[in-house]
Amino acid sequence: MILSNYSQYINNIAQSPSDTYNSITQETIKKQWDNTTQLRMVQEENYPFNQEYTEYEAWISTISDVSVNTDKIIGDYIGILFKDCDHPQNYKGQKYIYNNDTYLCYDKLNKLTQVSDFKCIRCNNTMSWIDRESKEIYSEPIFLGYEVSSTNNQISKKGTIGNSRLIIFCQANEKTKSISINQRFIFQHKSAFKVEEINNYNQESGTNGDVTFLKFHMVKDTINPQTDNVELNLADYNNIMNSDTTDTPSKVMSEIIINPIFSSLVAGNSLTFSANLYKNSVLADDVVTCIVSGLDNSYYTLVEEIEKNTFTLTCDKESLTKLVLTFSADGGLVEKVIEIGLRGGF
């Protein structure tokens, strides 16, 4: 009887080699977690992609080798490691915010590596366009390739044609999936490119066949002063806005944008940020107001500069309850709510 009970006990506590290795790896990471200069806060976009983020502690490091290269920026490539070895699966194209920059995941978590690490590249530009039917203005952070290839012009009997090409990476979401072949874009208020090919064939595992990462092949095009709005970086703006105006009225998209984005503040520290109203991606001069809830004013101090739409928030003491800031503009028609964690000092 004793031997039988002992055998049953051993079977209950026994682990497979994989489980044993996972446990050892997780405990090793926990013990070493704070003993590094690489510990940072990073925000991970939720999936399905909805522009909502969750903040995590992570180890962030440079992953590219140092080399003599005048085009490649080593700091644009980062590796991210989460503390939890069982961190939820991420996907190519998922966005991360670190140090006020947006990054795209291009090499996702691999569960066979036992640790939750992956690779991202910094979005170094923004792609803007106007929807032909709704006339809404969209913008999307992108990685625009460092090099413009085929810089020589094509020369034929019909004339000389620009042949420059570049590659763009971006997240596949409801906005970017509407982009089509031959659609034109303007960058930096001076250069126009049109879509020559779209690589939207790579389905992600675990997404029910959804494509989460797009690759655009762009070819050089020309600016048309009659149809393009160079100031707004919007190709074919005048054509679209002036078409069917009686049947399809233009829709104004209003949004309050917080800069810099943050979700926590350490006791004794202050942060100055702006909250501005944008209409169709253009900065408006409306006053943005803020209402605080969730905690009484013994936990925080908020100083407002109404004329500049700037705010300075000070964390006076930590709290397990989050501070809620509700920003409103345009007579209360536009609102944005953010939650701030008030943390203790290290």
What would you say about this model in short?
The chain has 3 helices and 23 strands. It has helices at residues 2-13, 17-32, 237-241; strands spanning 39-45, 53-62, 77-82, 95-98, 101-107, 116-122, 125-130, 137-144, 154-156, 159-161, 165-171, 184-187, 191-199, 213-221, 254-259, 264-266, 270-279, 282-283, 289-293, 300-305, 310-315, 323-329, 334-343. It has a 6-stranded antiparallel beta barrel with strand order 1-2-3-6-5-4.
List the helices and strands and how they pair.
Layout: H1 2-13, H2 17-32, E1 39-45, E2 53-62, E3 77-82, E4 95-98, E5 101-107, E6 116-122, E7 125-130, E8 137-144, E9 154-156, E10 159-161, E11 165-171, E12 184-187, E13 191-199, E14 213-221, H3 237-241, E15 254-259, E16 264-266, E17 270-279, E18 282-283, E19 289-293, E20 300-305, E21 310-315, E22 323-329, E23 334-343
Parallel strand pairs: 16-23
Antiparallel strand pairs: 1-2, 1-4, 2-3, 3-6, 4-5, 5-6, 7-8, 8-11, 9-10, 11-14, 12-13, 13-14, 15-17, 17-18, 17-21, 19-22, 20-21, 22-23
